[in-house]
Amino acid sequence: MDTGLVPEDWKQANVTAIYKKGNKQEPGNYRPISLTSVVGKTIERIIKTTIEAHLNRNNLIQDTQHGFRRKRSCLTNLLEFFATVIDTYDNEKAVDIIYLDFQKAFDKVPHQRLMAKLEAHGIIGNVATWIRNWLSNRKQRVCINQAKSEWATVKSGVPQGSVLGPLLFIIYINDIDTDIISKISKFADDTKLCSRAIKDTDRQSLQEDLHKLMDWADKWQMSFNVDKCTVLHIGCHNRRYDYQMGNNVLTEVEQQRDLGIIINQDLKWDKQVNTSYNKANKVLGFISRNFHYKSEEIMLPLYTALVRPHLEFAVQFWSPHLRKDINKM
């Protein structure tokens, strides 16, 4: 730490590709996860703890960020954001939610600008020197089964799969919601805004916020995948305004998967219930077919570990209230 030097093998990563969704032949549908030195990760945890203590002590991270923070989660993000959505809907009967998608967010963070952000957050001295060295001259190779690519130099981004990477990323985008008027909420790079949608001035205000976000992205060398940015119109009085990012009109959707939970424009939970039911039932069927001795000692741990998570993830947020949905669950 005193020297600020990082061993070269700590800066090498074997990258494995984790499938997300969509066409399996499309490389963009895989998430690159960096497997790095175990000893290096131990030091990263020490650095991370030091930085987190500084950020929390000085209240430097925006409350709108729920990702990779203590006592924050997908659940707190959903509950806090949709409390505003429901309140606006109850009073105005019209809400627009815009879901934003960063293009390769973790991979695009420019190192020099990141160091400037760290300094602005008071992260200086030996810690900053160590991070600068940790980011410089990084190398990675892709590993699939027994095949390995050649080593390639990494010139931007924070490593996904590292201990420090997520924290550095949320510091980098911490000021994205500066001067944003609409309600905004973030879980790492998953960002969404909402506003009432009754008058033309409502649409104009939300559109201006989108312009501000685009300006921020241009300034800090990030970009949005506009084709994947969507708008969800909620409410019977909704004017169903169009919104633009650059020259593109955002796609209107009837439902949106938000941190794993399906949000319908009618704010009903039948599709989420059906999805959770089908996933849990599929896993339960797999267990039933492959374990012939169905003793409680075997089945209960399997059910608890593999089935219940599909039924209970963020259920405090979407818990069904209709009898047919409750019976299905």
Describe the structure.
Strand 4 and strand 5 form a beta hairpin. Helix 4 packs antiparallel against helix 5, helix 4 crosses helix 6 and helix 8 packs antiparallel against helix 9. The longest helix is centred in the C-terminal third of the chain and has 21 residues. The mean pLDDT is 92. The protein starts with 11 loop residues before the first strand and ends with a helix. Strands 1, 2, 4, 5 and 6 form a five-stranded mixed sheet that branches. The chain has a five-stranded mixed sheet with strand order 7-8-3-9-12, sandwiched between helices. With 329 residues, it is an alpha+beta fold. It folds into two domains: 253 residues, no CATH class; 59 residues, no CATH class. Pfam families: RVT_1.
Q: How many structural units, i.e. domains? A: 2
Number of helices: 11
Gross geometry:
globular
User: What would you call the structural class?
Assistant: alpha+beta
Largest pleated sheet: 5 strands, mixed
Features:
5-stranded mixed β-sheet, 2 domains, 329 residues, alpha+beta, RNA-directed DNA polymerase activity
What's the structural blueprint in terms of helices and strands?
Blueprint: E1 12-19, E2 30-35, H1 38-57, H2 74-92, E3 95-100, H3 105-108, H4 111-120, H5 125-135, E4 138-144, E5 147-148, E6 152-154, H6 165-172, E7 183-187, E8 190-196, H7 200-219, E9 230-234, E10 244-245, E11 248-249, E12 251-253, E13 255-258, E14 261-264, H8 270-290, H9 296-312, H10 315-318, H11 323-328
Parallel strand pairs: 1-4, 9-12
Antiparallel strand pairs: 1-2, 3-8, 3-9, 4-5, 4-6, 7-8, 10-11, 13-14
